[in-house]
Design brief:
Blueprint: H1 6-11, E1 14-15, E2 29-30, H2 38-54, H3 72-81, E3 92-99, E4 102-109, E5 124-126, H4 131-145, H5 171-175, H6 207-216, H7 231-245, H8 249-261, H9 272-275, H10 299-302, E6 305-307, H11 308-317, H12 324-332, E7 337-339, E8 343-345, E9 350-351, E10 358-364, E11 369-375, E12 380-386, H13 391-406
Antiparallel strand pairs: 1-2, 3-4, 3-12, 5-6, 7-8, 9-10, 10-11, 11-12
Helix pairs in contact: 3-13, 4-7, 4-8, 4-12
Length: about 400
């Protein structure tokens, strides 16, 4: 890992125990905007030693890349990415960078181990929690079309909200990480409900179970009082949209965001042609990961599949404020909640330091990791996609992003 310069310290996430992101949508690291704690350094060192021991039977192989190594940008990407692929279990990555009015694409490794095929801008990846800014925009869109403020309580749109705390919970709090709803590990029956499998820990937890959880348990903390990274909150936001519009979450994404932005390959289900373009995901162990085809009642938290090309279009739309949709996006990037645990939060987004006037979101599923960063001040968009689920992937993407923001 690169040394911690002041901005990198402000950008890099604190890392969760390695057994948690292996199966849950919370990304390997959540971008927190304060100095990295000592335990991060200790944890990373310990992890590196463990991974080195595990890799003794995996001889390193040369990693292919289309990086031409002609420009300063090429060198910056190479410096950030090449060390990641020193680990033989890391398979592939796609990097897209928009700056100075042009987009540059870089592929490293393979879409599937042994295929010899570089990831391209049209390779499909599970993007995990990068779905959350899409969900936030859809909620704002629905609220505005019904002339409702973002601080509208959600209770009137639920089948049962008898538990204390849920009645006061607002749409804003669902989307700015202050809902008081629990993280995955604190959802009492997530792992014990019939149908649970670690290969996809959400697909069995449908809308009926989400609503039953709210009725039986309610919130963990008073809404609006503290930061909690709750996939349940964003899953619930997606379910309320489906309930009120009688339209699936995927259809809402396609009609309200993907179609206007011409995101041809962003959705939940895939056509036969798209199936052949999906990268093979890999677990932290280096073994192939099964696809997360459905996330049950958690689709709004992380069900989307997309390409680098589509995410770049989505990122570039964050730099403009001309159309109604772009103005809607601008509202999701507005400061909504501040906490000592996580820093500055928008709706679905983490906000960068004011100096860089931007937003960032990371994501992870069973076999994939992702990052998108947009800086209005730098007119910069960075998209980094991996077909590995690993803390090291997001650390690498954050290191590259920090280097680009300094230039």
């Amino acid at each position: 890992m690169a040394s911690f310069n002041p901005f990198f310290q402000a950008l890099i996430h604190f890392c969760l125990p390695l057994d948690r992101p292996r199966t849950y949508l919370r990304p390997p690291c959540l971008l927190l905007f304060f100095f990295v704690m000592k335990r991060l350094l200790v944890g990373v060192l310990a992890s590196c030693l463990l991974l080195a021991a595990c890799d003794r039977d995996l001889p390193p192989t040369p990693v292919i890349s289309n990086n031409p190594m002609r420009s300063t940008l090429d060198s910056t990407v190479e410096t950030a990415m090449r060390p990641y692929f020193a680990n033989a279990r890391h398979v592939g990555s796609l990097i897209g960078i928009y700056r100075k009015g042009a987009v540059s694409w870089y592929g490293y490794g393979e879409t599937k181990r042994g295929s010899g095929q570089l990831p391209t801008m049209n390779t499909l990846f599970e993007i995990g929690s990068v779905t959350k800014p899409f969900t936030a925009a859809l909620v704002l869109d629905w609220l505005q079309r019904h002339q409702l403020p973002v601080d509208t309580p959600i209770a009137r749109y639920l089948p049962d909200y008898s538990r204390r705390g849920v009645a006061s919970l607002t749409f804003r709090q669902l989307l700015d990480y202050s809902s008081g709803l629990p993280e995955d590990d604190a959802i009492a029956d997530l792992k014990t409900a019939p149908g649970y499998t670690s290969a996809n820990p959400y697909q069995h937890y449908d809308s009926t179970r989400v609503y039953a959880y709210l009725k039986n348990y309610g919130v963990k903390y008073p809404p609006g009082t503290r930061y909690t990274y709750s996939n349940l909150a964003f899953g619930l936001a997606g379910l309320i949209l489906e309930r009120m519009t009688h339209t699936s979450f995927e259809t809402l994404v396609r009609e309200r965001i993907a179609a206007p932005l011409e995101l041809a390959n962003t959705g939940v289900t895939l056509t036969a042609g798209q199936q052949s373009q999906v990268a093979q995901g890999y677990l932290e162990t280096g073994e192939p990961a099964p696809r997360w085809v459905s996330l049950g009642g958690f689709n709004g938290a992380g069900a989307l599949v997309s390409t680098g090309s589509d995410l770049m279009r989505f990122g570039q739309a964050q730099l403009r404020s001309e159309t109604a949709l772009e103005k809607l996006f601008a509202q999701t990037r507005t400061l909504s909640f501040v906490s000592p645990e996580a820093g500055r939060e928008g709706l679905g987004w983490d906000l960068t330091s004011p100096e860089f006037d931007g937003v960032v979101k990371t994501g992870g599923t069973g076999g994939f990791s992702s990052l998108i960063m947009v800086s209005q001040a730098r007119q910069l968009v960075v998209v980094v996609l991996f077909n590995n689920h690993e803390t090291a992937a997001i650390e690498t993407a954050a290191s590259l992003t920090a280097a680009l923001l300094k230039q």
